[in-house]
Amino acid sequence: MIKKGLLIVISGPSGTGKGTVCKALLEQNKFWISVSATTRAPRKGELDGENYYFITKENFLERIHKEDFLEYAEVYGNYYGTPKSNVLEKLDKGEDVILEIDIQGALKVKENYPDGVFIFILPPSMEELKKRITNRGTETEESLMTRFKSAYKEINFVSKYNYAVVNDTVEEAVKKIECIIAAERCRVDRIKNTIFDSKEGLIHEQLYD
Fold it and tell me: Rounded to two decimals, what is the model's pTM?
């Protein structure tokens, strides 16, 4: 039987570099990353269907009514959501899925899918976080202050996650996440059924919960 894939949820405050970490993680591993839908306008260089599915607010609300999202949230006046069918299909096929989403969304996924692996990305310091947000060059002074104040509050949600990874350098953060995933695959409570082969003296894993 096919082992069910792992749902790996990665999030953290704005400016922690979670997007960069996820990109590096995907370059080195065979994970499938879920593309979220959003009502916000694309930033420079972002592509529809690759970075996000950019849709209208009317379309988004219609899909909420149809229960098409694994989770959704309103952040800074815009909606973000994870299409449900794509994620569940990949997990059922035994593929590991990465969700890079905001904290509100991650906590909703945890309610609906508690078997997921929830990883919180932290900055080396709040001063470094402020520097990273400022260096983006995409925010107004007002939005910078809003994001930084929100980051202070969001740090407190780290206790809701299974793991915390400090993004001091991308390389080290990726190594830590890879170790977390390897350990999760070995967890006994993820093995639902085993078969003991009396001839070979082996225990064969059948599937994950």
Answer: 0.79
